[in-house]
Amino acid sequence: MRSFQKAGFRIALFALLSSFCGCDRFQRDVRVYLEEPFPRKLSAWHLFKESRNGLEPNDRVLPYDLNTPLFSDYASKYRFVWMPVGTSAQYREDVTFDFPVGTILSKSFAFPSDDHHAGAERIVETRLLVRANNGWVALPYIWNDDQTDAELRLVPDPVHIHYSDAAGRAQDFTYQIPNANECRQCHENNKQLLPIGPKARNLNKEFSYSDGEANQLARWTQAGYLRGAPTSVAAPPVAQWNNPGTGTVSDRAIAYLDNNCAHCHQPGGTAGYTGVDFRAGHFDPTHAGFCKHPNSAGNMRDLQYDIVPGDPDQSILIYRLASTAPKVMMPQIGRSVVHVEGLAVIKEWIAALPAQACSAAGAGAHKP
């Protein structure tokens, strides 16, 4: 009997010590840091249980995706959200949700691995956007070669990327990771750092969760992460740029511009002074650059107008999207190669625009 009592005592003592030392389930709970100094290692946040065979999220770390994401050199992106227990984001129809203090938005970027295993990927970076005590904070973490952890680097080094894509095309380029200050170029509006992607129109889609497919707005609500959301039918939709079944070429082009350009080209954005507004739901030829001279475009060859309806090759927008030259390319950061397929959609859209669109925009009498 005494041996059983001693064994029981040892088990109880081990459980007690485990709770104090941070072992067992306490070690697996997500930790949030609301002020500096922020952890040097990504693992300190406890967002993931496993990383060597793909990112396995911790409890209450919810994966999500966007209808039309920002292009980033053909990288695979893995997005997750976490909020403290008892808190939730307030639904807003047109802009990013109002997230509570303690929210962690995580986005990881991966490319095909050099080891030639089918489907194998190498995670290059994980960007955290954290709603800290004094506002949102951007934290770039760079993964080690073993894929066991990532280290905080406010000024990351470029990374060489080399692989063959599904079409057999060789991809060989230098992947530029924005530093913490450069994040403001895209994420700042009216001098305030904000998330970009988590809007109703971007999240209103089906997602394959571990327990089956569900609409993301409904799942966020079910998880307690979102309050005030309507049904998916009542929430605003947006086309998927590469899926003709979700909208016309115009719908898909505007969705592409919304997520690749509108973070800067909107009132309060870093390119708000241009008067060009590419937000979906606000799209208007009078504010979309139709037959409009650019404010400050630099060397654009002999091109005169942002968008020339019916003539993509004479449109500065196409020239910039097709460029990788500094001070010419758009977006200015976040990509090192041309998005061939996305560019094709924008060209198709411009080619289909009637020349009368210039008159409708009140932009003069330029004839393509």
Output the number of helix runs: 9
Cα-to-Cα separation, first versus last residue: 96 Å
Oligomer: single chain
**For the residues shown, what is the average pLDDT?**
87
Give the strand order of the largest sheet, numbering strands 1, 2, ... along the chain: 3-4-6-7-8-9
Shape: globular
- Number of beta strands: 16
Q: Would you tell me the structural class of the helices and strands?
A: alpha+beta
Taken in chain order, the helices and strands follow as HHEEEEEEEEEEEHEEHEEHEHHHH
Percentage of residues assigned to helices: 10-25%
Largest beta-sheet characterization:
6 strands, antiparallel
* Strand percent estimate: 15-25%
CA gyration radius, whole angstroms? 23 Å
Key features of this structure:
alpha+beta, 2 domains, six-stranded antiparallel β-sheet, two-stranded antiparallel sheet, disordered N terminus, disordered C terminus
Structure description:
With 368 residues, the protein is of the alpha+beta class. It has two domains: 25-227, no CATH class; 247-360, no CATH class. It is 21% helix and 21% strand. It has helices spanning 2-21, 24-28, 183-187, 200-203, 216-222, 249-260, 316-321, 340-352, 357-360, and strands at residues 48-50, 56-57, 62-64, 76-82, 89-90, 104-112, 121-132, 135-143, 150-152, 159-164, 170-175, 188-189, 192-193, 206-209, 212-215, 226-227. The strands form six sheets. Strands 3-4-6-7-8-9 form a six-stranded antiparallel sheet, with no helix packed on it. A two-stranded antiparallel sheet has the order 1-2. A hairpin with a 2-residue loop joins strand 7 and strand 8 (135-143). Helix 6 (249-260) crosses helix 8. The longest helix is centred in the first third of the chain and has 20 residues, at 2-21. The radius of gyration is 23 Å and the shape is globular. The termini are far apart. Residues 1-26 and 363-368 have low confidence and may be disordered.
